[in-house]
Amino acid sequence: MRKTILITLVVIMTLFASGCTETPADTDVEKGTVVIGSKLFQESYILAHMTALVLEDAGYETDVKQGLGGTFVNYEALKAGQIDVYAEYTGTAYSQILNLSQLDNWDRQVVLDETEAGLLEQDGVMIVSNLGFEDAYAIAVKEDWAAENNITKISDLEPYAAEMTIGTDPEFATREDGLPRIKDVYGFEFNDYKQAVATVMYEAIKSDQVDAISAYTTDTRNEVFELRVLQDDKNALPPYDAILIVTEQFAEENPDAVDAMKKLDGAIDTDTMRQLNYQFDIEQKEPRDIAYQFLVDEGIIEG
């Protein structure tokens, strides 16, 4: 009888120990795959892979939808549960998604606070990380032309705009906080515009196919292509702080994923983002490799 009891206890203990060793694997399976969206330019690619890497470091599988589409493609996919997270910008969310009114004096914290409250109230969408840098829209022209004509700010373009063609990304020409805002605030409009993805837009001004572009302030091609970024002297354009957004439901169901993404909170300053973009645009490195090296160097993930 004792022998039977002893064997039974050994079997139970073995099964229990076996069950304990399987727990981490079970947990990883339960975590599932996090789908990450991105917009149509280099910075968004890098941020998407950065997000993926911190999630993978926390035990998640990831699926990066690089270049998924513009603002509304990503945002609607987020709300529909087709993606779980993507990097947005406060000024874009404030003006385009929430359709909030222009402020007389743009304040980064006010825009962030109103965006955070508005997204949650309107769509149940949460900001889980404020990445720490701003990538604003700006108007840029060639440096030699700007120097010749003493152009330093957007209002200086008024005598020339009627004969100028501006190159824009796929959104800036028509979105309310883009060319329509420039027209309303500055009182002039360009003769024509040409839309293209950012890489083509920058190449267009380099090769004189356009006279100005809707530049990104974190893009080092502004310097490499010898462009002058003009001062927004009438405060037309809002601030654009980079943020990660998820649905409230995702956050409630995946607290570990949220904790992982919070590791990126304040991790990237503007100069750093410019250098990361430079690695993509000029050094032609892969966005995942750029993101990985940054995270390892900063001690956010292990190499």
From TrEMBL:
Xref: Gene3D superfamilies: Osmoprotection protein (prox), domain 2 (3.40.190.120), Periplasmic binding protein-like II (3.40.190.10)
One Gene Ontology molecular-function label: transmembrane transporter activity
Domain ABC-type glycine betaine transport system substrate-binding: 33-295
CDD domains, A to Z: PBP2_AfProX_like
GO cellular component: ATP-binding cassette (ABC) transporter complex
InterPro entries membership: ABC_Gly_betaine_transp_sub-bd, PBP2_ProX-like
Entry protein name: Glycine betaine ABC transporter substrate-binding protein
Organism: Methanolobus mangrovi
